[in-house]
């Protein structure tokens, strides 16, 4: 991986991707540039922290990122996209590849800031890229070459699984994999709380809960069995598991998850509207 890669915005997602890149490719830090808007607090900026931790190149502005990089990750919140795109639009050339990670932001919205063809790859990763177990969806626009797409797929493949998909289902990807780690953490916390209420020490409870979720996910991915078949294997007739499932279903377990995913997708679409303002700037 000998591509110059820049990050505009160095929060959670950029940190996860930078860490993955530096871990997977020897000497990669020399090819990575980072910038974050100046911090208002009297502490080291997030970009400076990344520079200190991984020895990546610290730049003074978003324009410097554009000048120093071929692949530009826009790792800012969706409502900041218009501001950043306005700032960099004149300096983007036909050589650059813009990689979006933003929920809800369409390729057309990004292209709309330019009066010339620009290369855009829309992606939706998730934070498990931190531990090499990410799930990333990728959609290129028509100007991206096969080599450029391969490079970006390779970047995310080094941190987990990647699927190239049509943009039509991109707005739904936060619901299923971009945001869903947060549902799963909440599920693990709930399992652990339940364990504590049943007398299991808290530190043990988190381990039992997390390993059960991890193992179950691995079974789905590796056994080639339908999740329903795996579920049936756990449920002994007149046993304890079916009693637990009965309570979950009576309380709308699946329906609640599906409704949550619809709310997530609705919000992702809202976030992607350039005129939409959130209270977070
Ligand atoms: N978090 C997640 O799990 C996932 C997030 N995403 C997407 O990733 C993107 C970033 O999310 P996340 O990393 O969580 O958000 P963060 O708030 O952690 O990071 C965004 C960073 O952008 C910085 N920033 C804001 N404005 C500017 C600017 N004008 N120039 C340079 N930097 C700026 C912020 O600075 P500061 O806060 O210091 O002011 C912050 O450090 C979003 O679009 C989100 O939809 C996608 C998949 C998963
Ligand atoms: O909460 C959010 O908007 C982002 C998108 C996917 C995960 N986090």
Automatic annotation (TrEMBL):
* PROSITE patterns referenced in this protein's UniProt entry, alphabetically: P5CR
What general EC class does the enzyme of this chain belong to?
A: oxidoreductase
Residues the entry annotates as binding NADPH: 62
UniProt cross-references to Pfam families, sorted A to Z = F420_oxidored (PF03807), P5CR_dimer (PF14748)
Question: Which GO cellular component term is one of those annotated?
Answer: cytoplasm
Q: Where is the Pyrroline-5-carboxylate reductase dimerisation domain?
A: 168-271
Keywords associated with the record: Amino-acid biosynthesis, Cytoplasm, NADP, Oxidoreductase, Proline biosynthesis
Alphabetized InterPro entries for the sequence = 6-PGluconate_DH-like_C_sf, NAD(P)-bd_dom_sf, P5C_Rdtase_cat_N, P5CR-like_CS, P5CR_dimer, Pyrroline-COOH_reductase
One GO molecular function term?
pyrroline-5-carboxylate reductase activity
Q: Name one GO biological process term.
A: L-proline biosynthetic process
Location relative to the cell: Cytoplasm
Reactions catalysed, semicolon-separated, are: L-proline + NAD(+) = (S)-1-pyrroline-5-carboxylate + NADH + 2 H(+); L-proline + NADP(+) = (S)-1-pyrroline-5-carboxylate + NADPH + 2 H(+)
- Where on this chain does NADP(+) bind? 8-13
EC number(s) recorded for this UniProt protein: 1.5.1.2
**Which pathway does the database say it acts in?**
Amino-acid biosynthesis; L-proline biosynthesis; L-proline from L-glutamate 5-semialdehyde: step 1/1
Give the Pyrroline-5-carboxylate reductase catalytic N-terminal domain ranges: 4-104
PANTHER family xref list? PYRROLINE-5-CARBOXYLATE REDUCTASE, PYRROLINE-5-CARBOXYLATE REDUCTASE 3
Matching entries from HAMAP family are given as: P5C_reductase
What family does the Swiss-Prot or TrEMBL record give for this protein? Belongs to the pyrroline-5-carboxylate reductase family.
**Function as written in the Swiss-Prot or TrEMBL entry:** Catalyzes the reduction of 1-pyrroline-5-carboxylate (PCA) to L-proline.
Task: Return the protein name.
Answer: Pyrroline-5-carboxylate reductase
């Amino acid at each position: 991986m000998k591509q110059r890669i820049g990050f505009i915005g160095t929060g959670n997602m950029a940190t996860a991707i930078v860490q993955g890149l530096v871990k997977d490719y020897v000497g990669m830090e020399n090819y990575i540039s980072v910038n974050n808007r100046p911090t208002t607090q009297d502490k080291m900026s997030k970009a400076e922290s990344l520079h200190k931790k991984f020895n990546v190149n610290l730049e003074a502005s978003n324009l410097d990122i554009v000048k120093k990089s071929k692949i530009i990750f826009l790792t800012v919140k969706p409502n900041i996209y218009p501001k950043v795109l306005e700032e960099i639009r004149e300096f983007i050339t036909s050589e650059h590849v813009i990689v979006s990670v933003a929920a809800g932001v369409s390729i057309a919205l990004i292209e709309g800031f330019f009066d010339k063809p620009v290369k855009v790859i829309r992606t939706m990763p998730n934070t498990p890229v931190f531990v090499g177990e990410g799930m990333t969806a990728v959609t290129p626009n028509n100007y991206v070459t096969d080599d450029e797409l391969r490079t970006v797929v390779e970047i995310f493949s080094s941190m987990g699984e990647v699927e190239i998909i049509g943009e039509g289902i991109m707005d739904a990807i936060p619901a299923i994999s971009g945001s869903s780690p947060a549902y799963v953490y909440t599920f693990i916390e709930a399992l652990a709380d339940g364990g504590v209420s049943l007398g299991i020490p808290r530190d043990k409870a988190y381990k039992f809960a997390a390993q059960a979720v991890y193992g179950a996910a691995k079974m789905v991915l590796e056994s080639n069995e339908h999740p329903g078949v795996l579920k049936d294997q756990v449920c002994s007739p007149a046993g304890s598991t079916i009693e637990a499932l009965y309570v979950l279903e009576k309380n709308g377990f699946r329906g609640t998850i599906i409704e949550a995913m619809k709310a997530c997708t609705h919000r992702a679409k809202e976030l992607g509207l350039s005129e939409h303002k959130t209270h977070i700037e």
